[in-house]
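pasting for ref. prot 1 ->
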Amino acid sequence: MSMRNRFKKTIQLQDEDVYSDSGPSQTDSPAPETSDLVKLELWNKKHSLQTEVNKLKRKHESSLFATRKFLFPLGVLFGVLLAFAFVQPSDIQDMHAQLTLLMDQYDVTLPQLPDFDFSRFETEWNKLRSNIPELWKFNRDGREFQVGERMKARGLSAEYPVVLIPGVISTGLESWSTSPEYRPFFREKLWGGLNMLSQVTFNRDRWIAAMMLDPVTGLDPPDAKIRAAEGIDAASSFIQGYWIWSKIVENLAVVNYDTNNLYLAPYDWRLSYWNLEERDGYFSKLKTTIEAFKRRQKKKTVVAAHSMGATVLKWVESPEHGGGGPDWVENHIEAYISIAGTHMGVAKAMAAFLSGEMKDTVQMNPAGSYVLERFFSRAERRKLFLSWAGSASMWIKGGDTIWGNSTFAPDDPSEDSNVLDANDVRGRRSGHTHGELISFRRIPVSVPIPEEGETETRSTRLMNEDNGFGVKNMTSEMAGDWILEHTPSSFQKMMATNYSFGIERNEDALNRNDRDHTKWTNPLEVKLPNAPSMKMFCVYGHGKETERSYWYTRGDFEHDESAADGISPLCIDPDTGSNQTGPCAGSTPRNPLDMPLLRKSWIDADYTDETVNPKVRNGVKMGEGDGTVSLISLGAMCVEGWKRRRWNPAGINVTVVELSHRPVPSMPRGGANTSDHVDILGSTTLNEIIVKVATGAGNEIEEAFVSNIRTYSQRIQWD
């Protein structure tokens, strides 16, 4: 046999040995009986390599983390912990109902299971829950009823009836639609509760269609009908475990409040204030309830309103609406407590209407942001926001007078907050101001700069013209007009017929505004009620970073319902009394050449710089506030505006209580000293204030300040 043939045969034998799968283990195969030294050497090398491979394989397979087998038990453990944190025994029945609803919807049939007695299960469940520290429970943190117990121990008891008015998105909304596609959800909550989560997940398009209002009428779309839930449960919790008003209700109950002297006034927060009365008679019902309290109990009522709910009293006085007359508030309202009131608007509302974004969306981690955009895009969110006319009441008010100009804002940060004024630009470390509500960087990080010699793209060239985007940095007034130009004509008409956002100093004009419903949500254009004996309290949090202004970027042109970047972006309609007729009705048709005339705009989330002041995080310039509402909106009117007779002719005493945000990191909702915009409703101090006012001990409440709001407010040109 030639050397070449012998070598080929040896290699063939080697391949057969190495790749053979016969036998229990290749490492246990005996050595070949041959005197061929080459073959023996190959066998030894193969045997050695196979042994090493098997050792490595066994080591890898024995590692729990390498095989990721730990993920399943970890998920089970996490689910059990969430169950203990959120689920109450009564929720088991709700889960069964939700499962049945989904099975019916998708025609899923399971065999009939025998009935199960849950009584024993409920007992054991409660026993297990009781052994978990209160610290780790989302819906309970060990402070339940404590404020009420302390007040009761002092001998305090229910003195005045109490009305609670929730803020925006706090009230649960139920489906009353009877069209076939919505019948499976009849009387189910489409906003709030576990059912909302299942509908958003499995019926997203149908849920959006039901929640979106008609853009022309501002009322229910065809075949869909949604109404506010009723009763105290309508806004006690958003979903199981996430309380809203429940802690306040618990503490009031300890001092002898119940449904006979406590009323929660839920409302469909999607509606404009006009439609809220026209469709649901909301303000008429509220007026009737308070009058009934006065007849039965011979006492005036304490009103506690949160967030957007803090702007509702003017309706009851108007002869064309509530018909209560100028003295109605004096005769029926003992005290008014504004809790984190959005008196002069919210910056995040402007961003939501412009691009469907806010701090909460741009500061998500990349994976969460990607999922959100794929599941519920910016354009879809914006379209939904634009249909909710009620949220437009939070459009910022007062313009540049309140929010600042291109060189100065009253709440601009500085090295020395006591010396900053309109001319002190050097006092700001960054030289930038919150007065520019929307700013544009010349070259955003997300747009690549062409290399030398490379032909400049059209998009990059456009962004380098006129401050990079064809628009300049904008103050609040400029931004308000610009955002409005970028909305459909139906939204523009809705705004014109429902709201006003200026500032009025003329007393004769303020008197006329008493009959103009478009002014009633703006405290700068309407007077406080003629109620000299009414006590008024402004209670809000401070110490949590809050979005105050934005860095934006722009992209390509796109088709939209508005030709915002065209020649005539604003809607012009001589018929100002209707939002259903005229050239502004419905959607603006596409232009004759069918050219895309709207440029995409979005928060420049790539831009972060925490070394400047104000700091920038993901395109959001951070300021002071309660995490949602800026300090200027929360407190300036309470501290300075209502001290002036033109806006407070009766001289109502306004007491301001600022609460420092001092959350406990290990508690999901912050604990007793949180002052977050929503979590403040569980704050011990706020609960004490409400219970004291309701039980007749409101005279014990003293003003308290933890911010520079008095300094900021004095920089505003009120007169």
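and prot 2 ->
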Amino acid sequence: MDEEAKPNTSEEASSKAAPAAAAAAAATAAEAATPPTPSGSESPEGGKEEVGDLVERVAELVDEIAVISDFRNAYRRQFCNLSRRIRLLAPMMEEVKEGPRPLPEASVAALRQLRDALAGARELLRLGSNGSKIFLVLEREKIMQTFQDITSRLEQALAGISFDELGISDEVREQVELVHAQFKRAKERPDTSDDILFNDLISAYNSSTNDNVDPDIIQRLSEKLQLVTISDLNQESLALHEMASGGDPGAVVENMSMLLKKIKDFVQTQDPIGIPASTTNPSRDDNLTSPVVPDDFRCPISLDLMKDPVIVSTGQTYERGCIERWLEAGHGTCPKTQQKLPNKSLTPNYVLRSLIAQWCEANGVEPPKRPAQLNNTPATCTASEHSKVIELLQKLSSQNLADQRGAAGMLRQLAKRSAENRACIGEAGAIPILVSLLPTTDVSTQEHVVTALLNLSIYEENKARIITSGAVPGIVHVLKRGSMEARENSAATLFSLSLVDENKVTIGASGAIPALVLLLGNGSQRGKKDAATALFNLCIYQGNKGKAVRAGLVPILLELLTETESGMVDEALAILAILSSHPEGKAAISAAAAIPILVGVIRNGSSRNKENAAAVLVHLCNGEQQQQHLAEAQEQGIVTLLEELAESGTDRGKRKAIQLLERMNRFLKQQSQAQGDAMAQAHAQSQTLSQALVQVQADTQLEESLPPTSSHLPER
């Protein structure tokens, strides 16, 4: 390439002005879209690649892409869209890990194609996060083509995915189908680059060694390249140095470095203290369009983007401050559904909070800051209170059983009284000592210890302290072998800890789920309630669903549905609705002959229970046994019930009822058509038989009318 050439502002200028060796970074991303088969595996034609390893690799690539961020460059929207869409594939890969084996060759081929496309996407996203912003614009043709190639490959890979073969649930299927549609739309309507930015950069690049660069051009480059702070400029400088150390021609990098220096001089002249201009003077582009906040991210009361979403007992989500004011005003109903609230507990919706943060990042919106939680930030305890706690800890650490029992009981009571006490006890180091006493054989001490941990876990910071102290195995030990009161409070403690998403994995791996299932089956009324709430929360994590099914949870839930006096119908149905989205859960529910029970709930249950029963049926009436289950449900008289639910149920209940009615109508139409075909075939066979009988009768009459032959003459 002739580096001394003076390119104009035409498209040809790109190839002449762009650094030849630096373009290798884009080429690397483009080549990664069609990488060679990784070492240690064989091609689809050539042999055996372990399906488990392939699935793990695809899941790892999605996870690796999820942590790549900070796309502050001219292609921010394209990078954010690509990253966001790929992150939405994570739930599918979690289900594929738990899905059926072996997989058909077509599904394995689709996963290989997805793996290769994701490898290319990862390299491109890394370039967008860490690469030179100036280089990205100079190489716009290759960058945009790489975007298009990777988008096309991802769309093709997702098009080859068979949800049934991989055991994907309906909810996840809908999400992946949406992602596939977005990739398909992006493939058909490729993005266009900013011509003004490109022309400005080419002009400045070719004048970088001169002093006569138009200041207006430098200002536009600074704003559009998002090189507006000293930090931005230092990061770009580092990227250029890395390009130079990677073998790029010195003169090429020097030209880009000279251009960067001019931008840096301009920024320091305009903003000597390094405050980004965009914080006080947003660019016109920022003001032209404001992203529309999805309805699911808005509080139903204030209609604002939620900062601290919480779930009430009806399952609806609200902004914490709004629902707290509603409850403080004396209301006892859910604002959205008008259902009576069984209790006024508020559970943080960590999943939605994470989705809101991802949406904000993808759309360039500053994530909402959670308001200070006065109730969750207790004042520091006084010196006298602290000394009292220390005294109790000394007794707790003694070898005297009576002292241990008394101190544990006192800590239990103190932790129950106030958030200040919970914070003070946790900060004093009580939790590791309490955890060490969980295996004690003294019944009263064990009850006090596990209940103290339950009370302490209400304070958010103590949750982390309890987990890091290794408490979960001890709590599970008490859950299995303790008194009924100790078992109840162990289950409640596991529920409290599982409110933090990462703790669901830890608890699920500890052997807690079979013990919770056992408590649900043979515990006291309170124990069953505590076990059910813990199991519900743990089974939100896909990896725990199979464990719960294998522990025998499904038959117990169905038994609870038939025992209306148990008061556990709500909890049992809610857990069934979660398990039915898992292949093992669906199979277990199907094998337990649950259709009549579920139809009975839709006939006589509450609105929420009808909704969950319909959700379970949607999963059952899909896949291999769809026709069998639809026929059984029809015999139970479900059609009229679904029509009523579609008219007067909850929003989710209406959607599930409509889905089932559509499947039922298709089934009845196929059944009617099959009956019609059978009747037509029977009629045709009847016609053929009638015609044969007529022919036989005609032949007989003909034979009787013939003259006698020689055989009929008398002998002589």
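The beta strands are 309-311, 317-319, 347-348.
Residues 651-705 form the longest helix (55 residues).
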